[in-house]
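Narrative progress, year one. The postdoctoral researcher (J.K.) led the effort to move from monomer predictions toward full complexes, under supervision of the PI. The following entry was the first complex the group processed end to end, covering 438 residues in total.
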Amino acid sequence: MTTIVTNPKITWGPRVDLRDLPNLYAPQTVDPYTPPPPGIDNLGISSTDTFMIPGKGEFKVDFQGYVRVARSQPSTDQWLDSEVYTNLIEMCMRGEAPEIGQIVVTLNPDILSTGMLRTPWADMNCEQPEKACRMAVAALFTLPQLGMTLFNKEPIELTIDHVQAIPPAGNPGEGRIYQVLPLFDLANPDSKPAAYLTGLKFAMGNYVTEAQLQSIASE
Amino acid sequence: MTTIVTNPKITWGPRVDLRDLPNLYAPQTVDPYTPPPPGIDNLGISSTDTFMIPGKGEFKVDFQGYVRVARSQPSTDQWLDSEVYTNLIEMCMRGEAPEIGQIVVTLNPDILSTGMLRTPWADMNCEQPEKACRMAVAALFTLPQLGMTLFNKEPIELTIDHVQAIPPAGNPGEGRIYQVLPLFDLANPDSKPAAYLTGLKFAMGNYVTEAQLQSIASE
């Protein structure tokens, strides 16, 4: 169902070296305020996205699924100043709206979705700051009932603040969309926007097992 | 000094057909609330950008310069529902900070900076709505004193609200930056961010003459 994104030409940030990264499934123990050894986090995720499709109206859709996030070696071994780079290498979320049917969200294999976790400048004098997480995501929204796949050309910027542990399992996050983010029809990519993403709120879930992940992927 | 961006492979939105577009310099008469015939607007621009350079600190820099914006044929001939697509084909802004010297902002020739003007969904029942303008910009920040050119991999999203005329000369606008937008060193593009854009406020100027534009470009 989904593709693992490994080596696209377009990148929206630094690449994480995937060699030798362990695949981390549930259960895992995560130490708060501690730069973690690198790895691939297999995490649940839920999201509520709002779409405006010209001629069809606005749709608020609840999604459930998983993400696989490759994390770099932290830049230092102190929580305070360590930076961690991330690549989203796989995603599968499913949702449904009565009027437009099922929507499946996966990664755009042509673009590397990238992110980072760092301490905000203003908090660099705190003893135990909370970190900020940001990720630029290139997604495919497949709508089988409409026979259409939508994609974004500008990144969907997802942010999580108040990060006390890496990964930030359980944290709420937000898509930083100012009014509209254009979405394009994969069958007609050079045309004008076919739809718009107008809002996005999400929550990172906990580690999932490999069986849970496979079950979502093959639904 | 600057390059005209015409045909890059990466685009952040729809391309505007540049053939037969008239080059519009000062003076021009712009009718408010009227979809204009297509053209290339040569406009002044001012901007105040804030940069964080790790190890060097935060710098707030005032820029002055010009932009050349190609505008599409409006999608309809009514102001209410017409959409206009834009491509930024040339930019030159100059600023200076005592600690880091001159900064010249031009376009990244590898990516097409694209935008659009449209009526917000919420205002589609207004008789004479104000339009919203958004543009995704790929820039080069050249810092001769530091021997460094910075560029963004995620778009700098510039927005202008309350647009009563196209082009929105004189309107203030904002860069929609949530905390930080990573900037990379062109000499080491795959490395971690070399700096961050942390804030951006700008104002569109009026039409400039061809002589004014040349004078800024060749400074």
